[in-house]
Amino acid sequence: MTTLFDQWGIHPHHFWLRGQQPGNPVVFDEKTSTWNVYGFDAVQEILAHPKTFSSGTADLLAVEVDPEVMEGNILQMDPPGHRQLRNLVSSAFTPKVVADLEPKIVKLTHELLDKVQGQDRIELVGDLAYPLPVIVIAELLGVPASDRDLFRGWAERMMETSIELLRAERAEEQERALKEQLESIGKLRDYLRVHVLERRRQPREDLLTKLVEATVDGERLSDNEVVNFAYILLVAGHITTTLLIGNTVLCLDAHPEEDRLLRADRSRIPGVLEETLRFLTPFSLSLRATTEEVELAGQRIPSKTMVHVWLSAANRDPRHFDRPDVFDPSRASNSHLGFGRGIHHCLGAPLARMEGRIVLDILLDRFPALRTDPALPPTFMQADHMTGARTLPLLTRV
């Protein structure tokens, strides 16, 4: 049977979006010599034990990674280094800092939508869902939001090469994909390095300056650590929000009764966003490496083995969620893993939630009729590790 997800072009590996369930919560893939973890409890177990399931997966690639690229890469770090770096930047995402951003986000959302007001069709990702969070993160860091098209090109190429790395079966394929990925990363790092060096000469009231001036165990971060940390925040910091906005609109389009209820009662917005995070999890996949032999859901996983942690599959686990394949914003319990869990729980989750809430509220105000275009269906990210629209044309009139 053809499902809505097939029509949308969801990645073929994401079988759980088609109502299918894995035979076991933990499955070994002989082709890639990796373990796939789909069950909610097993995923939660992994995320809760970074000592056994390390985020430092670079050593398991068949190619050598430049150590300079890994310095300050918080996504690849375990405690205590991870905790120290996370604490440095956490001040930029406190409840007060996030709340103070609300007027600016409201203003930016209206400014972006003013550019397409009156048109019969908008392209939600390019017109709003992408530029808004990029501008917000760029302003937090202190780099010009006017350079967002540069960021988008670098970010998309890094995503494409990440996919190639995951799929590569031979060392030469991995080496080629990694080389292309590092070229894109290098361009962004060079760009950020200019701003980091400038902050050392002339400090400002921004996050880059805080990183430049911060100390860990009495020592300042190196230029590489600041640059790499900043690029992770810039790239990862906007993608989740971009995908969340598009996915929410898609879910409401596919469930018109929920759209009607939401338009009548805006207090339902938080529930809609949380259910979207569960139903169409933006970051589908997280990688871990075992540091010792471990038993998980009855399976023995050897030490130094790559583990694919499928957050989006865990969010459809019928052992944890009632009617997991039903989009139900009013579900009583929704302890999803849309922002991860444990020490790597998404630092920008409060900001993403606020941006999603503001955007959805304004879209409902400004567009009484907003729906997908049968003649121009959405295109999806063709990435194992992400779920969401790359382009999303919408009709604005009845």
UniProtKB/TrEMBL annotation:
Coiled-coil region list: none
Keywords from the UniProt entry: Heme, Iron, Metal-binding, Monooxygenase, Oxidoreductase
InterPro entries, sorted: Cyt_P450, Cyt_P450_B, Cyt_P450_CS, Cyt_P450_sf
UniProt cross-references to CDD domains, sorted A to Z: P450_EryK-like (cd11032)
Pfam families xrefs: p450
A GO term, aspect molecular function: heme binding
Name recorded for this polypeptide: Cytochrome P450
Organism: Streptomyces venezuelae
